[in-house]
């Protein structure tokens, strides 16, 4: 009985450790994408604090938007901008761009689903 308990607790401990290292690896990959200035990525236009650069500072942004919305936005900022969903209307108001047909967020290329998930994991650490 005692041996089973030891095996069980080792298993639980192992899984916790594994899921933790997976999560931080993803955020680390996301951070690298975010900071890739050569590729003209996020950091070119975004501060990780609250200061505005070309776009808003992204501290706490994962509490402002749902993950689903962030996926949509990072997949296609222009189409999302045109959708005028509640998050976009709020963003337009904050940026004072209610009358702008185009977003100023231009990505250097299309991000893969995995890259988007990693970047969102990274944004989640900026609380
Ligand atoms: C060329 C500049 C530029 C780049 C590069 C860029 N953004 Fe943006 N981003 C903006 C602007 C500007 C806005 C606000 C919308 C607008 O004014 O058109 C914005 C808005 C956002 C928002 C919504 C913020 C809020 O407060 O609601 C998020 C999240 C975001 N960007 C994430 C990213 C990520 C992640 C990347 C990199 C993969 C990135 N952006 C790359 C300019 C940029």
Jot down its keywords.
127 residues; mainly alpha; Cytochrome Bc1 Complex, Chain D, domain 2; 59% helix; elongated; binds heme C
SSE blueprint:
Elements: H1 2-35, H2 61-64, H3 67-75, H4 77-83, H5 86-95, H6 113-123
The protein binds heme C (HEC).
Q: Could you write a compact summary of the structure shown?
A:
The protein has 127 residues and is mainly alpha-helical. It has helices at 2-35, 61-64, 67-75, 77-83, 86-95, 113-123.
Structural class of the secondary elements? mainly alpha
Task: Give the second-level CATH assignment, the architecture.
Answer: Orthogonal Bundle
* Heteromolecules bound: heme C
SSE arrangement, N to C: HHHHHH
Q: Taking all residues together, what is the mean pLDDT?
A: 89
Low-confidence parts:
none
- Determine the fraction of residues in helical runs and give it as a percent range: 55-70%
Q: How large is the share of residues in beta strands?
A: under 5%
Q: What does the largest sheet look like?
A: none
Multimeric status of the protein: single chain
The fold-level CATH name is: Cytochrome Bc1 Complex, Chain D, domain 2
Radius of gyration from CA coordinates: 19 Å
What number of structural domains do the residues give? 1
CATH superfamily membership, which one? Cytochrome c-like domain
């Amino acid at each position: 009985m005692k041996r089973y308990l030891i095996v069980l607790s080792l298993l639980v401990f192992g899984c916790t450790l594994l899921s933790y290292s997976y999560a931080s690896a993803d955020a680390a990959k996301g951070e690298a994408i975010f900071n890739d200035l050569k590729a003209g990525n996020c950091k070119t236009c975004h501060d990780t604090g609250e200061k505005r650069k070309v776009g808003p500072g992204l501290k706490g942004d994962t509490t402002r938007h749902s993950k689903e919305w962030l996926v949509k936005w990072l997949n296609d900022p222009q189409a999302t901008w045109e959708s005028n969903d509640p998050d976009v209307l709020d963003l337009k108001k904050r940026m004072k761009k209610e009358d702008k047909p185009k977003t100023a967020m231009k990505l250097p290329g299309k991000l893969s689903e995995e890259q988007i998930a990693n970047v969102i994991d990274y944004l989640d650490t900026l609380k």
